[in-house]
């Protein structure tokens, strides 16, 4: 239990800062135990109120105003603030000298030391662990940073902006001074220092300026940066072409570090990355790793305009930079790779993470209205649903008008700390659209449900579509106003072709896909000149983040999965068909009844695999079965994890039996010859081949283990090797042990590959997995101090291994709760994320619910708990 209940921060209490900081001068002398920070702030009063600076875990050595040292009676300090009682009326300079201990910083926020590299993470509120400051995003300033360190031990000294001076100092020390001419909030400050190597390239911007690009890595990793560098250049070019945004400094730097709380950070001119998203060679990185590297490099780079040049007024506006930047990176990937496959995987992600969040105890609006710990709000709702909101505007106005709206947003707010209102006003004025009702998406939480039904009138040749919307209550929001929901619609004729659509009141038929606007609780649309009964294809491309219930019959789903011209809806129809079948199998297991039989999915697989022309990546998506977690979500209550696992395995085996010849032939045909290339085309073939392998592994009469073992032995790239190892890790027997051992022996020195080895074992469905995971927490490849290791072993177990985390006796829950508490002492942010594994406790039967609640209460009641874990545990229980 916390002795003091933390107080929530509320959006409605926002007040502008009482002081502006025009310039920041930092002098930082690095030392593991006592880094000294001398800060000089040029300050100006802007409004009423005392000068109260944020500061945590700092030792205050000196305070001066306009050069005069202040006695202890002129200020007060506590664990969170430095308050100066009186300051001059006009401009003044505030100087502080403080010290902090990077080596003791295991929370990895502020300045920390890891693998002998000094590194900072300031978003959201880490700068206050480096020096006393007005640590809020609407205080923007020009930074000059001078870093001093031992020249031999710490030869590379980096910060934001351009380097302006460097030199040697007494006692074997040296310094580098950096100047960032762009005003920025403190959360974008960065410092990295250590014995780093780098690779370099150049980029010429659209106006002809040459920018130096550097990627810094630990020595020995220089040859693993080529893909990242290429991705950076593609992202820079794309932002110029798609959004007219050019890079603005002379140098752009990326640093890869191994201990990092999240994926990466967009600090101005000096992005810091989790090395998982930089380092790649074919034999160590999978296709998924390459794709993630490209997307995250682009995401962080795109923040330079959406986040840095225009930042957020306060943390409630986080979606302003995150949702928009995710939308931008999704579009980039859509252009670089397969657009339909990207859309499918984004929707998969949204449904897997955001829908459960929106339907559970931690539901919050895309723009939350209160928080206890802001780091808990870097969520799927803010990021992924936030991106969907931008996408809906894009869908409604089309690309050209959207671009006009964005141009106006950049023109109006460059250099400012903006709000969601500013964004919507610019979009509304620039793209000429009324977004008044649409704005509810930002303040109402929950996933709206759309009900659709259609009626064909053969005599009148009309098709009438009715749609209605409801949104269930969410915490603090019992009632919802109707949303503005754009629904793209098509009507498919018996020949599988789209009909031209003509709505009532229109003179002639037009496009084959139309965006209908559902703005009331109900709406009706009548299509004319419909010559035969159509099959409706609704919510094409997933034009809104809603749950659609269209009451489609099984034969309509089969029809759409074969014929829909909209790839997303083809995939959707296949998923719905398989889900329906699986749910009836789960039900049959529970009731002892008989399940519905359906061979449609297998037939579709057979047809797709034998078709003359196929897009392998798309086929890989459409033939994969919905995950166990998705099925649990669909069931929603009294979930039986064993029945779900059993049903899914049964269907997998029966599909494999039905189509084994086609699977095997595709498995052979999809083999990629020649050297590995990470490009989407080859990756798609590997993806399909490996889905075939996962089916073949359970096909009767095939020795799945032998096939996987052969692939494991022969693989010349990590994608094929991991796919085979995943199959083997789920089949008891000698091949399993041999493969896991061989993999370990080969890769034990590569920490990123070892993360894969840990995750594969943590997600195995075999009995005894929990004991194995416990054993692995003692393995030299694991440490609680590194977030990637925690995520690989413990988070994978808790959130990806539904079967074993929800062990009927509660052993999985107890283990994860122990780890949350252990981790909370080291790294509250990562511990809070892990606590999220308990959020779906209401989905389960009474026994499991009781066990999960017991662990949540044990967590919430622990003495000295962090604000981060406290907020998640108490809100989950509420
Ligand atoms: N802006 C950072 C995330 C910061 C998380 C702080 N807890 C990375 C990103 O979204 O690009
Ligand atoms: Zn971001």
UniProtKB/TrEMBL annotation:
Keyword Metal-binding (UniProt): yes
Cofactor(s) listed: Zn(2+)
Domain Aminopeptidase N-like N-terminal residue range list: 103-188
GO molecular function: alanyl aminopeptidase activity; metallopeptidase activity; zinc ion binding
Superkingdom of origin: Bacteria
Positions of the Peptidase M1 membrane alanine aminopeptidase domain: 227-441
Keywords: Aminopeptidase, Hydrolase, Metal-binding, Metalloprotease, Protease, Zinc
Limits of the Peptidase M1 alanyl aminopeptidase C-terminal domain: 555-878
Residue ranges annotated for the Peptidase M1 alanyl aminopeptidase Ig-like fold domain, each copy included: 446-550
Catalytic activity: Release of an N-terminal amino acid, Xaa-|-Yaa- from a peptide, amide or arylamide. Xaa is preferably Ala, but may be most amino acids including Pro (slow action). When a terminal hydrophobic residue is followed by a prolyl residue, the two may be released as an intact Xaa-Pro dipeptide
GO biological process: proteolysis
EC number per UniProt: 3.4.11.2
Family classification: Belongs to the peptidase M1 family.
NCBIfam families: pepN_proteo
Function (record text): Aminopeptidase N is involved in the degradation of intracellular peptides generated by protein breakdown during normal growth as well as in response to nutrient starvation.
Protein name: Aminopeptidase N
């Amino acid at each position: 239990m916390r002795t003091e209940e933390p107080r929530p921060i509320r959006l409605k209490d926002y007040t502008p800062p009482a002081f502006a900081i025009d310039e920041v001068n930092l002098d930082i002398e690095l030392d593991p135990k006592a880094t000294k920070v001398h800060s000089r702030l040029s300050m100006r009063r802007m409004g009423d109120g005392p000068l109260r600076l944020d500061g945590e875990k700092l030792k205050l050595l000196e305070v001066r105003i306009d050069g005069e040292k202040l006695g202890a009676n002129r200020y007060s300090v506590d664990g969170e603030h430095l308050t100066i009682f009186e300051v001059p009326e006009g401009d003044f300079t505030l100087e502080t000298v403080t010290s902090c201990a990077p080596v003791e910083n295991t929370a990895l926020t502020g300045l920390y030391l890891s693998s002998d590299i000094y590194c900072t993470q300031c978003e959201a509120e880490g700068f206050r662990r480096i020096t006393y400051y007005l640590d809020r995003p609407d205080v923007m300033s020009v930074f000059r940073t001078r870093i001093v360190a031992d020249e031999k031990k710490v030869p590379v000294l980096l910060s934001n902006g351009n380097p302006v001076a460097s030199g040697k100092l007494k006692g074997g020390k040296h310094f580098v001074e950096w100047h960032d001419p762009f005003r920025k909030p403190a959360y974008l400050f960065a410092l990295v220092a250590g014995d780093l190597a780098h690779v370099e390239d150049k980029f010429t911007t659209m106006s002809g300026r040459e920018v130096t690009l550097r990627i810094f890595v630990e020595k020995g990793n220089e040859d693993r940066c080529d893909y990242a560098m290429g991705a950076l250049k593609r992202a820079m070019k794309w932002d110029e072409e798609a959004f007219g945004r050019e890079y603005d400094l002379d140098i752009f730097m990326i640093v890869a570090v191994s201990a990092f709380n999240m994926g990466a950070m967009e600090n101005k001119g000096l992005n810091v990355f989790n090395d998982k998203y930089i380092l790649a060679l074919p034999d160590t990185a999978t296709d998924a790793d390459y794709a993630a590297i490209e997307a995250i490099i682009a995401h962080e780079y795109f923040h330079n305009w959406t986040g840095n040049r225009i930042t957020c007024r306060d943390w409630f506006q986080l979606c302003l930079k995150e949702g928009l930047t995710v939308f931008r990176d999704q579009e980039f990937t859509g252009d670089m790779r397969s657009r339909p496959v990207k859309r499918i995987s984004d929707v998969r992600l949204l449904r897997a993470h955001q829908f459960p969040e929106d339907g559970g105890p931690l539901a919050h609006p895309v723009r939350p209205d209160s928080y206890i710990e802001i780091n808990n709000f870097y969520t799927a709702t803010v990021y992924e649903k936030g991106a969907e909101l931008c996408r809906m505007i894009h869908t409604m106005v089309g690309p050209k008008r959207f671009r006009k709206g964005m141009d106006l947003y950049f023109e109006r707010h460059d250099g400012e700390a903006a709000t969601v209102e500013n964004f919507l006003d610019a979009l509304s004025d620039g793209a000429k659209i009324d977004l008044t009702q649409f704005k509810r998406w930002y303040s109402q939480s929950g996933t709206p449900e759309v009900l659709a039904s259609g009626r064909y009138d053969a005599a009148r040749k009309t098709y009438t579509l009715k749609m209605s919307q409801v949104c269930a209550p969410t915490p603090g929001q019992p009632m919802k106003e109707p949303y503005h929901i754009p629904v793209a619609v098509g009507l498919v004729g018996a020949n599988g072709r789209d009909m031209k659509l003509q709505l009532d009141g229109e003179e002639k038929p037009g496009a084959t896909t139309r965006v209908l606007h559902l703005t009331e609780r109900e709406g009706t649309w009548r299509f004319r000149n419909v010559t035969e009964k159509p099959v409706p294809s609704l919510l094409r491309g997933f034009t809104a983040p809603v749950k659609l219930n269209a009451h489609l019959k099984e034969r309509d789903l089969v029809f759409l999965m074969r014929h829909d011209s909209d790839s997303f809806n083809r995939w959707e129809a296949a998923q719905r068909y398989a889900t329906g079948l699986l749910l009836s199998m789960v039900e049959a297991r529970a009731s002892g009844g008989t399940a519905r039989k359906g061979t449609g999915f297998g037939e579709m697989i057979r047809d797709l695999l034998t078709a003359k022309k196929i897009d392998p990546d798309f086929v890989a998506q459409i033939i994969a079965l919905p995950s166990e977690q998705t099925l649990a979500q669909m069931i929603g209550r009294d979930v039986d994890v064993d029945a779900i696992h059993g049903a899914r395995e049964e269907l997998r085996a029966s599909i494999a039996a039905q189509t084994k010849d086609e699977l095997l032939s595709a498995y052979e045909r999809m083999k990629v010859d020649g050297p590995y290339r990470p490009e989407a085309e080859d990756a798609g073939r590997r993806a399909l081949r490996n889905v075939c392998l996962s089916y073949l592994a359970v096909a009767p009469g095939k020795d799945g283990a032998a096939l996987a073992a052969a692939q494991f032995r022969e693989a010349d790239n990590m994608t094929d090797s991991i796919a085979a190892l995943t199959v083997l890790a789920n089949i008891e027997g000698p091949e399993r042990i041999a493969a896991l051992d061989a993999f370990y022996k080969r890769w034990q020195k590569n920490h990123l590959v070892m993360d894969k080895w840990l995750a594969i074992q943590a997600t195995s469905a075999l009995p005894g997995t929990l004991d194995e995971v416990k054993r692995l927490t003692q393995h030299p490849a694991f440490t609680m101090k590194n977030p990637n290791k925690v995520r690989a072993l413990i988070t994978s177990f808790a959130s990806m291994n539904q079967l074993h985390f929800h062990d009927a006796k509660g052993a999985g829950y107890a283990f994860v709760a122990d780890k949350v508490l252990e981790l909370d002492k080291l790294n509250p942010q990562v511990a809070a994320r892990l606590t999220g594994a308990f959020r779906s406790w209401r989905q389960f039967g009474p026994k499991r619910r009781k066990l999960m609640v017991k662990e949540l209460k044990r967590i919430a009641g622990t003495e000295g708990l962090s604000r981060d874990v406290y907020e998640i545990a108490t809100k989950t229980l509420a």
